[in-house]
Design a protein that fits this description.
- It is a single chain.
- The chain is an alpha+beta fold.
- The protein has two domains: 171 residues, Alpha-Beta Complex (Ribosomal Protein L22, Chain A), CATH 3.90.470.20; 101 residues, 4'-phosphopantetheinyl transferase domain (Ribosomal Protein L22, Chain A), CATH 3.90.470.20.
- Helices cover 25% and strands 29% of the residues.
- Helix 1 packs across helix 3 and helix 2 runs antiparallel to helix 3.
- The protein starts with 7 loop residues before the first strand and ends in a 9-residue tail after the last strand.
């Protein structure tokens, strides 16, 4: 699934009172015993590389933080894994944090399930940002770039963020003074991977896919890495993904891009461990192109 072999386990779904699932590591916690407070753990990947991840339990907000230390950098990325499937009572409670625009968008979903997941995802994002900025979730104000990427109004706190979801799982990423993008795709069977690859993969990537031992995992790796990068750029889903070339296995890497004049050396792609999904992060120079709406 990804280069990192850090093994994590998500506990079973909880009652409506606990909206956000915990992420813990079997290497650091014996079965049935919960570790309190922040810890640091070191895990060796299949290629012998050591990944250092700090696991924090932020009980005030009642959801977990996984801090990823970017290689050869002083930058830290904070991640939250969010359980989007909660009770109707919880959805009604958390919708009070949303703006009129967010509620209007939620109302356009035809499915009650998709509407509820959208509300919980936005509420979780507001809770994360409020915890970082020291304000109430309802007080968060967003600005939007030309292609709709949200940022904090006025660049508040120099915090960049991104939200992604797949099914009932979501991931929120925060970074300071850096462009950040995240994508998640649940592991699942995919029919006709080759046809999909022709739409979104470069020639180099399609050749790599032909020789992949697990084409579905290779496709999901490539897709999430491309999406994370495009989201960090703030280009939206209309960006021509065939102009980007990334690795499809092993260490996440950006090889070439025709979407920006920035060197690929300015960007870092990362794999993030998840028990049932492929998660990719992209980190690069901060973009100051947001407009208020």
């Amino acid at each position: 699934m990804s280069e990192s072999s850090t093994e994590a386990v998500m506990p079973d779904r909880r009652s409506s009172a606990a909206v956000f699932s915990d992420l813990e590591c079997r290497e650091c916690r014996p079965a049935g015993k919960r570790r309190r407070g922040g810890t640091s753990c070191r895990h060796t990947g299949p290629a012998g590389r050591v990944d250092q991840v700090a696991l924090h339990n932020r009980r005030r907000a009642n959801f977990p933080t996984t801090r990823v230390l970017v290689p050869a950098s002083d930058t830290c990325l904070d991640l939250w894994y969010v359980d989007l499937d909660v009770s109707a009572d919880a959805v009604r409670c958390f919708r009070e944090w949303l703006s009129c625009d967010e509620l209007a968008k939620a109302g356009r979903f035809r499915s009650d399930l998709h509407q509820a997941r959208y509300i919980i995802g936005r509420a979780a994002l507001r809770r994360v940002l409020a915890d970082r900025l020291g304000c109430s979730p309802a007080a968060i104000r967003f600005s939007y770039g030309r292609n709709g990427k949200p940022t904090l109004e006025g660049g508040r706190g120099h915090v960049e963020f991104n939200l992604a979801h797949s099914g009932g799982d979501a991931v929120i990423a925060l970074a300071r003074d850096a462009a950040i993008g995240v994508d998640i795709e649940l592991l699942r069977p995919i029919e006709d991977v080759e046809s999909l690859a022709r739409l979104v993969f470069s020639d180099v990537e399609r050749r790599e896919l032909e020789f992949a031992s697990d084409p579905v995992s290779a496709f999901l790796n490539g897709w999430t890495r491309k999406e994370a990068y495009v989201k960090a750029l703030g280009l939206g889903l209309t960006a021509p993904l065939t102009k980007i070339t990334v690795s499809l296995s092993g260490k996440a890497a950006l090889f070439s891009t025709g979407l920006t004049e920035q060197s690929v050396c300015n960007w870092c792609l990362l794999n993030v461990p998840h028990p049932r999904a492929v998660v990719a992060l992209a980190l690069g120079p901060r973009l100051d192109s947001a407009r208020k709406t």
